[in-house]
Amino acid sequence: MGVEWNEYSLGEISENISRPFNFSGRESVVFINTGDVLKGDFLHANRSSPQGLPGQAKKRIVEGDILFSEIRPANRRYAEVTFDSDDYVVSTKFMVIRLTSKEVYQPFFLIQLTSEQTLREFQRIAESRSGTFPQITFDAISYYPFIFPPLSEQKAIAHILGSLDDKIELNRRMNATLEGMAQALFKSWFVDFDPVIDNALAAGNPIPEELSERVEVRRKALADGSVNREAAKQFPAAFRLTEEMGWIPDGWEVSTSGSLFDVKDGTHDSPKQSVTGKYLITSRHITGNNIDYSNAYLISEEDFEQVNKRSKVDPYDILLTMIGTVGSPFLVMEEEINFAIKNIGLFKTGDNRTLATYFFTYLKSDFMKAFMDSRLAGTTQKYLTLKILRGLPVISPHSTIMTCFGVQTLPIFDKIHSNNQATASLIAIRDTLLPKLTSGELSVPNGQSLSRNNSL
Q1: Residue 322's closest CA among 340, 339, 344?
Q2: Which residues contact 191 (CB under 8 A, 6 or more apart)?
Q3: The predicted structure's pLDDT at residue 293
Q4: Residues 199, 185 contacting (CB under 8 angstroms)
Q5: What integer is the mean pLDDT of 146-161?
Q6: Residues whose CB is less than 8 angstroms from the CB of residue 80 and which lie 6 or more positions away in sequence, other chains included
Q7: Sheet strands (E) in 191-326
Q8: What ranges in 275-398 are assigned the alpha helix state H?
Q9: For the CA atoms of the chain, what is the radius of gyration?
């Protein structure tokens, strides 16, 4: 570390702001609770009436504030306000941190404040305090020390780490776009039944009244020539009524997940943490179509083999969260499985890639989300039972149609997987550089910055 690096406590360079929010004259506001931010992102901007908001909806925020949850700091519920937030009211369970020192560059400060080392220490403090939940206050952490190089070097370090974060975020957005493409095709074919409606209109066949709104949409699309009729050749031209799913295309069947897959629910035990071995994954480690290993722990090879006797995961199996954030699926595409699962639904596909991509996309549909939400068990903590997982209703189209869907979507999921692997490498580089750069162990020559537009 250079002689010009200085140490400041959190309380010396920032303060915890408590501005009251003025509800007067506002018909709607955006309420942000501690669960509504994650790893720097605001998870929604939904407006609601001021009437009926919880009592903790009291704080006003402005651009430049840093929201940091007092509850369970290791859960990474933080975000920087980078927009006009006049209509935003936030929970009193947030610290609203405002930088006060001109010697500190906020992006560099934010990197240090949200580093793994800092969060671990804040979590330790939270768990040492009595209360219902592990919780911190600004006063309890105001002593926490940070070290800062000159401003020029702070900016250079922030640019280097920021360029990695930008690439990670770009991959995330690309994956969201790709997944949206797969979902749009699935909805058109297997929810709205667009090709079947098109065929029925062309043949002059009757179409159920329940589908009348979609019929008008398709009639207009056919009239203006924007429909590719090639794919529709594989689809029937009529509907039939089923007890389980209402109207479905003629010739298609309604089955259950248990008849299509061997369905398991992972180990119920808690193997001991190990220094080496394989990861133990629970529901909280599945975020989107990705696995977050940052808070997972290793179990020994012996325990890994023991868990696998009950619930061995293979490529193209599908995982589904059963507790906590319930109903989030994950399509396994890793060639070498380096994790075991605990309390996670497991659908064994037998390496049937077409069926895997179809069912994975089906699980992400609004219909299945609503179906699973309506069948949650538990009061304090909601969960899905293995019985529910085995009884999920599934529309089964002809194999030729499912194959056609697989041909179009498998490259999409391959690209998503490729992006996830690239992201994992970028995260590893960032996590290696971060403590070295922010501690002074690794210096940036002459405060030289790296533009975010340049390659690393």
Answers
A1: 344
A2: 365, 366, 367
A3: 83
A4: no
A5: 93
A6: 40, 64, 65, 66, 67, 106, 110
A7: 239-242, 246-249, 253-256, 262-264, 278-281, 297-299, 318-321
A8: 301-311, 353-363, 366-373, 386-390
A9: 26
Percent of the chain with pLDDT over 70: 96
pTM, full prediction: 0.78
Sorted by where each starts, the structural domains of the chain and their CATH numbers stand as 6-148 (3.90.220.20), 258-396 (3.90.220.20)
Q: Phi and psi of 2, rounded to 5°? A: -70, 160
Return d(Cα 147, Cα 7) in angstroms, integer. Answer: 4
Q: What is the mean pLDDT of residues 391-398?
A: 93
Q: How far is the C-alpha of 413 from the C-alpha of 18, rounded, in Å?
A: 45
When pLDDT is cut at 50, 70 and 90, the band that residue 446 belongs to is low
> Could you tell me if 90 and 144 are in contact, meaning their C-beta atoms sit under 8 angstroms apart?
no
Dist. CA 180–CA 384, nearest whole Å: 26
Name the pairing type of β-strands 29-32 and 47-48.
Answer: antiparallel
Average pLDDT over residues 281-310: 87
pLDDT, residue 379, reads 79
Residue range 335-355: mean pLDDT, rounded? 91
The β-bridge relationship of strands 78-80 and 145-148 is unpaired
At residue 146, the pLDDT reads 94
Interatomic CA distance for residues 277 and 304, integer angstroms: 8
* C-beta atoms surrounding 382 within 10 Å: 15
Q: Tokens 């012996």 correspond to what residue?
A: 302
Chain-wide mean pLDDT for the chain? 90
Residue 450 has pLDDT above 50, yes or no: no
DSSP assignments along 7-28, one per residue: EEEHHHHEEE--EEP--TT-S-
276 membership: H or E segment, kind and range: none
